[in-house]
Design brief:
About 15% of the residues are buried. The chain is of the alpha+beta class. The strands form 3 sheets. It has a 3-stranded antiparallel beta sheet. It has a two-stranded antiparallel sheet with strand order 3-6. The radius of gyration is 16 Å and the shape is globular. The protein contains 2 helices and 7 strands; from the N terminus they run E-E-H-E-E-E-E-E-H. It has a single domain, classed as Gyrase A, domain 2 (2-Layer Sandwich).
Length: about 120
Amino acid sequence: MLQQPPQHDYHYAIRKVPALTGGDILRDSVRTIPGTAAGEHQVTVALTSAGRRSFARLTKEVARTGGRDQGWHHVAVVVGDEIVAFPEIDFDVYPDGIPNAPAIQFPAASAADAGDLVDRLRGS
């Protein structure tokens, strides 16, 4: 039997003001959608026009940092005090970031987690 290492809690220091906040999303748009694999669940969040501009600036900065360092860099999607997604920005695919994205999508571990996240993002 394979033994799993003990679970750890990780804490991160916040060094900057968030690039996007709840005011940058269209709360009524937040919903779950089926993922690409069977049993996979995604959460989709539409962005306001200001949110699109902020997301474009953020991903451009992350992509350019990745290009300089020759490694992919990530953005953290934080809801409350929990990192709910940590997607990487591939500087080869998106050298100038992701401009004018109408929405962002990220996976959830289960249907229950996706529903809980939708509720939290909507402010329910």
